[in-house]
């Protein structure tokens, strides 16, 4: 039933103006649509997410958006150059080196946006 429907992530922002600046200045994204409810972003790969203002932003402790790239180190270097800090983990089942974890054939790195939302950046083997 839902396989023909478009799906999109929904991200909260405590400060929509600040979030918009982060997505523009740090991630290089501009909204494809804008209305009183929030901002819709779309990638050229066909995915997207909706960003809206709420006091609940930053409360989730799980990955909320996952990005896939063909060159993880290159993307990380560019994002680091724009001020992104990648998380480091060292506990059973998850250890990062230089911000990258090896997970079942995928290499993944995590960062947070200006609103505390957790993003993953991964490269499939």
Question: Could you please describe the fold and organization of this structure?
Answer:
It is a single chain. The chain is α+β, with helices and mostly antiparallel strands. It has a single domain (2-124), classed as 2,3-Dihydroxybiphenyl 1,2-Dioxygenase, domain 1 (Roll), CATH 3.10.180.10. 16% of the residues lie in helices and 39% in strands. The protein has a 6-stranded mixed sheet, with helices on one face. A hairpin with a 2-residue loop joins strand 6 (90-91) and strand 7 (94-97). It is globular, with a radius of gyration of 15 Å.
Architecture blueprint of SSEs:
Blueprint (H helix, E strand, L loop, with lengths): L8 E5 L2 H10 L7 E3 L2 E5 L5 E6 L9 E6 L3 H10 L8 E2 L2 E4 L2 E4 L2 E7 L5 E7 L1
Parallel strand pairs: 1-4, 5-10
Antiparallel strand pairs: 2-3, 3-4, 6-7, 7-8, 8-9, 9-10
Contiguous low-pLDDT stretches (5 residues minimum) are: none
For the termini, the CA-CA separation is 31 Å
Largest sheet: 6 strands, mixed
**What is the CATH top level name?**
Alpha Beta
**CATH T-level fold name:** 2,3-Dihydroxybiphenyl 1,2-Dioxygenase, domain 1
Question: Could you give the count of β-strands?
Answer: 10
Mean pLDDT comes to 94
- How many distinct folded domains? 1
- The count of helical stretches stands at 2
Strand order across the largest sheet: 5-10-9-8-7-6
Percent of sequence in beta strands: 35-45%
Q: Provide the CATH architecture.
A: Roll
| Rg calc | 15 Å
- Helix fraction by DSSP (H/I, runs of at least 4): 10-25%
Compressed to H and E, one letter per element, the order equals: EHEEEEHEEEEE
Shape: globular
By helix and strand content, what is the structural category?
alpha+beta
CATH homologous superfamily heading: 2,3-Dihydroxybiphenyl 1,2-Dioxygenase, domain 1
Protein name: VOC family protein
Domain VOC: 1-124
InterPro entries: Glyas_Bleomycin-R_OHBP_Dase, Glyas_Fos-R_dOase_dom, VOC_core
Organism: Leifsonia kafniensis
């Amino acid at each position: 039933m839902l396989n023909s429907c478009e799906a999109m992530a929904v991200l909260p922002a405590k400060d929509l103006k600040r979030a918009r600046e982060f997505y523009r200045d740090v991630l290089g994204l501009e909204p494809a649509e804008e209305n009183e409810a929030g901002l819709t972003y779309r990638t050229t790969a066909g995915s997207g997410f909706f960003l809206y203002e709420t006091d609940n932003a930053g409360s989730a402790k799980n990955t909320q958006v996952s990005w896939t790239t063909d060159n993880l180190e290159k993307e990380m270097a560019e994002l680091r150059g724009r001020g992104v800090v990648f998380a480091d983990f060292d506990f059973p089942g998850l250890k990062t080196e230089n911000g990258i974890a090896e997970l079942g054939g995928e290499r993944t790195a995590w960062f947070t946006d200006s609103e505390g939302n957790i993003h993953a950046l991964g490269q499939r083997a």
